[in-house]
């Protein structure tokens, strides 16, 4: 009987968990921060949720004089410290039995030969079936060497009936030309459909919920256009500084670090048309279409701002300025704050500005998308009664307080017709009993399942650089970033940028 004829079975099938088939994961750069804080815990959480096959194997590759047990201990410690789900001895034992470590540097042929025989051993001892994903969690300068070594040692060639996939961590280049070159190298070794570029924001539940909010409901989409929307603000604020990441961050800066990827992906999901389905190809088509319609304002001096944090107070303690951070060139012009105004040249959004901002050491950690609506075309109320009425807004709270807020005006109880803003809230924690998986759990599982919906394609990456490159070039040619005190909401120029348009930033 077809599932269409049997709705009950169809409903049950949809509740079946998506479980990865026989497979293994090789992590290059396994001693790095990302691996310890995110990747290893995510693998354990997946195993703990029963979403990995019994013989799943994890191979670490790095320049360390480690045996398998040493690697196992490192994973154990990171799981204990960072995993989302409780530690269970039996899950750990099964996962630990499939852990291997291959010591070596990236241009060492012998190390790659050892990696090859390790994979073959795992195929016979753990039944991984030749299916391996190679996770490049390494500085971009090593990408070409690792990829070429995988090719040279035939590790990128999937034996018959199995798969080999590459997972690439950002940054995908630092401008359009370097991204194109990187994509050329990657595609010399892996087919497009076997390359998974990580943008971990797409793995967040709240980000996937943008699609549900817009396309599973009827009440929002009719308003989601230039007739009702005044402007959109996309904010990714962090309270942390650059921590131990000076080597990566200096010279890269806030705009390249997160606007080029996370924020432009949020913009694409917020502004795109409804895709014909939710498979990777249909989603990329729509995201790319809207990214192609994105336009920078002509006068970049008036519509972009960059800043750099100076010493200040945060969380009750004194924190150093960016230029005093360890490993930073005291004359660095790197932006730790960036704000950009973008327009979208299409029928839906013509004339509606999208303001994107991000920064380190801001007032607090918050990521949100605020769709701010126009004021009512006519107000029948006394001006004094609506003094405290702002603009209606729908705010998608990506993190940390996941949910959606709608802001609208309401009568203040009493004898007059005073109207004030109130909010209506949906909070994940209150509406669902399930807790949200970490972005990396979802993304690693998708790689093992070969599901590319939540991974940007190279055309999106390149288009995003094309949007950002003129801003970076403009900044390069024009002075220094404006200092802002740590713990505040960024440089004054950012407030002025919006004030010139008769608007102001939200203070989340
Ligand atoms: C990364 C950036 O992509 O995202 C970091 O490189 C940033 O600079 C991080 O701190 C923030 O991620 P999240 O999930 O904590 O918002």
UniProtKB/TrEMBL annotation:
Active site annotation, chain numbering: 262
Residues reported in the UniProt entry to bind NADP(+): 63, 170
Q: Where does substrate bind?
A: 200, 204, 238, 257, 360
E.C. designation(s) = 1.1.1.49
- Give me the reactions it catalyses: D-glucose 6-phosphate + NADP(+) = 6-phospho-D-glucono-1,5-lactone + NADPH + H(+)
Q: Name one Pfam family in it.
A: G6PD_N
Q: Gene3D superfamilies in the record, alphabetically? A: Dihydrodipicolinate Reductase, domain 2, NAD(P)-binding Rossmann-like Domain
Asked if the keyword Oxidoreductase belongs to this entry, the reply reads yes
**GO terms, biological process:** glucose metabolic process; pentose-phosphate shunt, oxidative branch
Query: Which residue intervals define the domain Glucose-6-phosphate dehydrogenase C-terminal in the entry?
Result: 211-506
Domain Glucose-6-phosphate dehydrogenase NAD-binding, first and last residues per copy: 26-209
Its biological purpose is as follows: Catalyzes the oxidation of glucose 6-phosphate to 6-phosphogluconolactone.
Q: What is this protein called?
A: Glucose-6-phosphate 1-dehydrogenase
Please tell me the species this chain comes from.
Streptomyces carminius
Organism ancestry: Bacteria, Bacillati, Actinomycetota, Actinomycetes, Kitasatosporales
Gene from which the chain derives: zwf
